[in-house]
Design brief:
The structure holds 2 protein chains of 2 kinds. Chain A is built from 2 helices and 5 strands, in the order H-E-E-E-H-E-E. Chain A has a single domain, classed as Trna Endonuclease, Chain: A, domain 1 (3-Layer(aba) Sandwich), CATH 3.40.1350. In chain A, strand 2 and strand 3 form a beta hairpin. By secondary structure, chain A is of the alpha+beta class. Chain B is α/β, with parallel strands linked by helices. Among the domains of chain B are: about 190 residues, Ribosomal Protein S5, domain 2 (2-Layer Sandwich), CATH 3.30.230; about 170 residues, Rossmann fold. Chain B is about 35% helix and about 20% strand. Chain B contains 22 helices and 19 strands. In chain B, the strands form 6 sheets. Chain B has a 5-stranded parallel sheet with strand order 12-15-18-11-19. Chain B has a 4-stranded mixed sheet with strand order 1-2-4-3. In chain B, a hairpin with a 5-residue loop joins strand 6 and strand 7. The chains are: A alpha+beta, B alpha/beta. At the A-B interface, loops of A face loops of B.
């Protein structure tokens, strides 16, 4: 497994922990179709949520959120619709969230420290 | 609340309009949205603002930042809003406070330094008029901003100094806390150390001989008359014209403000540090285009030579060599003392109250003087040359004289003429006298007096007008020429401290007009 994939997986784990704490129920992790992948699919209250997780080691290459473009949002929305259709949730309200995970290496432990930011209902 | 406000000013021509800058930080993906008709230079300010904030160490939040420029319908241009945008964004983020009633006027460098902008004087004046008491500018603009009375000017070199001044309790963090404070200036107080303008380097004393031309120059200065000098190359036309500002009275407070505001919007950003008292002198080259003379450019047009010569002298050397449409386009500003320029983005009106001085050779080779024996031009060339100046333009020029080459006897070292200071004093007195007389009619100079005033309130006794009436009847003089002679006669009587012109003044005034080309 490559380093960047490990970073991504670690970030997703941290994000999932955070969302569960916030009261989300996680339905899927890395749900894939031919058109693409949704990092996390959760239920928050009565809403179906697709969560895009962006993980970075430091912000030297820009903030994680800056990597989410219009195009990417469009794809996420399409994928979420597809998921809802497949799982008979056409009538459920849907939204898209983003979680930024910034991993900072801590000197004491081998486990890097994660700073999370959570944006709800991107439009 | 994640809203912040700051103020700034944009200039439409010479007129400053207050702009309210609102910033809102939303909880969505990072973006910078600038609303309110910004132009390209202003749109680029997004990147300057973000970089400046980051490099100053007080980064803007990585969220959607919406900046609205009110009033939204007014097209805005220029980089002077940079600082206001950043301050409103910081205010929205809770880093600074108390910015909503302060005008910010500066461009930002990527490292956060404040750069000077053009037109600070008219912008600050507009802010003061709108009732804003505090203005923040770049240090390089501080002296200029402080020319406006009653304004508190805060000047800084770096955006962190500004941030420190307005910081909230929450934002007492490292980068802000240990910067030096702002420089404070109070507007209108700088006049005390207002050193007098450096003495005019061009003095009338340097003109040898040329008594006739010198006197004409004095008349032009006293009455504000437009003038044309015709003479052979080397006769001293340019030399004389360049010395006209030295015998004109200095600008008063209000006029100096207007003249300085014009140089503030048209010159480099840092050159204005004090009020300009000396009258401007503009001498565009004869290859100039209509846009450079009148003002032009895309979107909101920039002022041209007629505006830079406002309250001063516009000198057109080799006048017949100018493009005809350029010369004729001067007719409107000559008539109304303003110039209105229309462009797709709207129209602006600039002041253009200038005294026109034309200089011309008598013919293309320039030697058609006295009997014309040295002239190598054909008859047709001679006839056509001065006719390039259109009748309607020449009609507006009260004084038309021949400048002759100086005689060797006049070059004797002992023979220095009067200096500018002496002449300027007489001009000042003559102007005071006419201002007194014309005040009831709302005028200041003889050159502004209309026909109906000359024919009624300021009518002269019939005996004085005999020679003039004869000339009119014999068609040696048009009615417009008649009016001009009367105006000149009034100016002459003011120079000689008479109550009204006599036959002598009328006679002299006719002499000052009836040279070869006039009608």
């Amino acid at each position: 497994m490559r380093a960047k994939d490990r970073t991504g997986l670690l970030g997703e784990e941290k994000a999932a922990e955070h969302l569960v704490q916030q009261g989300h129920r996680i339905l899927e992790r890395r749900w894939r179709t031919r058109a693409g992948e949704l990092d996390l699919i959760t239920v928050d209250g009565r809403e179906l949520v697709a969560v895009e997780v962006k993980t970075r080691r430091g912000i030297g290459y820009g903030h994680p959120f800056e990597a989410i473009t219009e195009q990417k949002l469009l794809r996420l929305r399409r994928l979420l619709n597809e998921y809802a259709a497949e799982h008979r949730m056409r009538l459920t309200r849907r939204r898209i969230d983003a979680v930024a995970v910034i991993l900072q290496r801590n000197h004491r432990s081998t486990e890097p420290e994660a700073v999370l930011e959570h944006l709800k209902d991107l439009s | 609340m994640s809203m912040g406000r700051a103020r700034s000013v944009v200039l439409i021509g010479m007129e400053g309009r207050m702009i309210e800058v609102e910033a809102d930080i939303g909880q969505t993906l990072p973006a910078f949205v600038l609303l309110g008709l910004p132009d390209a230079a202003l749109r680029e300010s997004q990147d300057r603002v973000r970089s400046a904030a980051k490099n100053a160490g007080v980064e803007l939040p990585r969220r959607r930042l919406t900046v609205n420029l009110f009033p939204a319908s007014l097209p805005k241009s220029g980089s002077g809003l940079d600082l206001a945008i950043l301050m409103s964004a910081w205010a929205a983020d809770g880093q600074v406070e108390g910015t909503s009633e302060v005008v910010f006027l500066a461009e930002l460098g990527l490292d956060g330094r404040l750069r000077p902008v053009k037109g600070v004087l008219p912008a600050v004046a507009a802010a003061a008029e709108a009732g804003v008491g505090t203005v923040v500018v770049s240090s390089l603009n501080a002296a200029e901003a402080a020319l406006v009375p009653g304004v508190q000017v805060l000047a800084a070199d770096h955006v962190l100094q500004v941030a420190a001044h307005f910081r909230t309790a929450k934002a007492g963090e490292a980068p802000i806390s240990h910067v030096q404070g702002l420089q404070r200036l109070t507007g209108g107080l700088a006049h005390h150390d207002d050193a007098p303008d450096p003495p005019e380097s061009r003095d009338l004393a340097e003109v040898r001989g040329q008594l006739h031309a010198r006197f004409t120059l004095e008349v032009a200065a006293a009455g504000g008359h437009h003038m044309m000098l015709i003479g052979a190359p080397g006769a001293g036309k340019t030399m004389l014209a360049e010395r006209l500002p030295s015998i004109l009275p200095l600008l008063d407070e209000q006029e100096a403000m207007a003249a300085t505001a014009i140089s503030s919007i048209s010159s480099g950003a840092t050159s204005v540090t004090r009020l300009q008292r000396r009258r401007p002198f503009e001498s565009p080259h004869h290859s100039a285009t209509a846009a450079s003379i009148l003002g032009g450019g895309s979107r909101v047009p920039a002022p041209g030579a007629v505006t830079r010569a406002h309250l001063g002298v516009l000198f057109l050397d080799e006048a017949p060599e100018f493009q005809r449409n350029v010369l004729d386009s001067l007719r409107q500003p000559l008539e109304t003392a303003t110039i209105t320029l229309h462009r797709s983005a709207g129209h602006v009106t600039y002041p253009a109250d200038f005294q026109l001085v034309l200089a011309a050779n008598p013919c293309p080779c320039g030697m058609n003087v006295k009997d014309g024996s040295q002239c190598s031009c054909s008859v047709a060339q001679r006839r056509n040359y001065l006719s390039r100046l259109s009748g309607p333009l020449l009609d507006r020029i009260d004084l038309q004289i021949q400048v002759e080459r100086p005689h060797s006897a006049e070059l004797a070292p002992a023979e220095t003429g009067e200096g500018s200071a002496t002449v300027a004093q007489r001009v000042q007195q003559a102007r005071a006298q006419q201002a007194d007389r014309l005040a009831p009619y709302g005028l200041r100079l003889n050159s502004q007096v209309p026909l109906h005033l000359l024919a009624n309130e300021l009518r002269l006794p019939r005996s004085c007008l005999r020679a003039l009436d004869t000339a009119l009847d014999r068609a040696q003089l048009s009615l417009r020429g008649y009016v001009r002679v009367l105006r000149l006669a009034w100016t002459l009587s003011d120079i000689f401290h008479k109550d009204h012109p006599d036959e002598d003044e009328i006679d002299a005034a006719m002499q000052l007009r009836l040279v070869g080309t006039s009608r």
